Amino acid sequence: MTNEALATALQSAGLIENLSFNGDDVSEYHIVEAQFRNCHFKNCNFDLSKIHSSEFINCRFVHCSFREAEFQNCSFYDEIEQTGSQWSFCNLTEAKFSRSNLSLNKLDKCDAYLLECMECAASGMSLEVGVHREVGKRILTGGVRFSDCKMQYAVFVPGNYEESRFEHCDLRDVSLAGSNLTRTSFIGSSINNIDLSGATLDNAVLANATFDEIDLASMFSYKAMVVSRDQHENILASIGIVTLN
After folding, report:
1. Which tens digits make up the pLDDT trace of 125-137?
2. 61 DSSP β-pair partners
């Protein structure tokens, strides 16, 4: 029998605080202006839900499913305590976040195949996620999609982020160390002081990304990496070569 505690709570106005929800199904729900604080969601189903202008402050999601869910103008960040929500073993396949605050959120061992974030605040975010899908013996390459996001100091646990997109984002001081970034796009992003040590950037696209210097020597590989002409001077300076006009 489906647990309906969450559905009942959503029908009430005001703050929902210090409650636990287990096994609730709110798939395909339209949720607007909900307020949750210090709540624990376990084995809950949010698939295909559309969640707008809502808050999930200091909440924890464990073994929850958000496949193709859409979050718009939502916050998962406590500005007063400066803490984020936690997501463990969650399915975020093809979930979309737009104009939402995910700062200091921690995604631990989550599925994030084609996860998309647009115009989001994600500073200090920590991600240990799988971004590809295994079908039988085949691996479907997916990646994550971040566009126009503020991601300073975000940390990606070393993993395979092949074909991901970090476009027009603030990636200053982000760590992608030790990761597979083959065919990943950084077009138009700020990547000053980004940590790419031990990372593979074969066929990655850094065109029109901004940086003072980039440590090519620390990378594992950057075969056929694509850059734009305006970056040549900084790249040469990074390896100690000065251009004489």
Report:
1. 999 999 998 877 8
2. 41, 87
